[in-house]
């Protein structure tokens, strides 16, 4: 069920956030680290909706910090400490999983986050499949701008690797069979060439 999936995703993201905190907190000047709050599944057999989730209520201004689909650029995300640390968390997870997994849709009050999503490549990562489109990973790589927290953690810039991959993909796409269907797909996906190649797997 969707509810069970939601719990699974958020609690998996929470485990990554704990590992991130363990690495970031000891760094001089890093300060507070975002936390993903736990979400609990309860079973209510007498109720006509037998499964529900329970989590701590967050009080205060609720902000969406991370880029969900590439179109959403939130200034609070860019300029706030919590927003920058969320983007660094995304970069950290991306690097730790070799670009196979991204925690996305980071939102919450201050440093407390909830209702997050996870994108994985089509085949999943270590037996885990995300609940968001794997194109989010591509968009993150194209749009992420490193900040001082990325530098503190020694994360590698995604700019140069992204350009190299784009060049490699454009040469590959020239060798594709010349059918009109392929042409249409390539045109439609021109902005995300790797999407087209990944979707064959």
Automatic annotation (TrEMBL):
Residues 161-182 are annotated as: Disordered. The keyword Metal-binding does not apply. Coiled coil: none annotated. Residues 1-158 form the Alpha-type protein kinase domain. InterPro entries: a-kinase_dom, Kinase-like_dom_sf. It is found in: Basolateral cell membrane. The keyword Membrane applies. It is an enzyme of class 2 (transferase). Protein kinase that recognizes phosphorylation sites in which the surrounding peptides have an alpha-helical conformation. Regulates cardiac development and cardiomyocyte differentiation by negatively regulating Wnt/beta-catenin signaling. Belongs to the protein kinase superfamily. Alpha-type protein kinase family. ALPK subfamily. This is Alpha-protein kinase 2. It comes from Cnemophilus loriae.
């Amino acid at each position: 069920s969707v509810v069970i999936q939601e719990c699974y995703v958020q609690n998996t993201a929470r485990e990554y956030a704990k590992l991130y905190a363990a690495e970031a907190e000891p760094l001089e000047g890093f300060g507070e680290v975002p936390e993903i709050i736990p979400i609990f599944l309860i079973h209510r057999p007498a109720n006509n909706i037998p499964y529900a989730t329970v989590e701590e209520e967050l009080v205060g201004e609720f902000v969406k910090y991370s880029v969900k689909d590439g179109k959403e650029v939130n200034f609070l995300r860019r300029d706030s400490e919590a927003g920058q640390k969320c983007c660094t968390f995304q970069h950290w997870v991306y690097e730790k999983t070799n670009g196979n997994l991204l925690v996305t849709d980071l939102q919450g009050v201050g440093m407390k986050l909830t209702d997050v999503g996870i994108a994985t490549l089509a085949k999943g990562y270590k037996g885990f499949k995300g609940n968001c489109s794997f194109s989010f990973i591509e968009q993150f790589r194209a749009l992420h701008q490193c900040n001082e927290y990325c530098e503190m953690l020694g994360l590698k810039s995604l700019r140069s690797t992204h350009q190299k991959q784009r060049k490699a993909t454009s040469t590959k796409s020239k060798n594709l069979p010349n059918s009109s269907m392929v042409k249409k797909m390539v045109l439609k996906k021109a902005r995300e060439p790797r999407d087209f190649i990944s979707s064959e797997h």
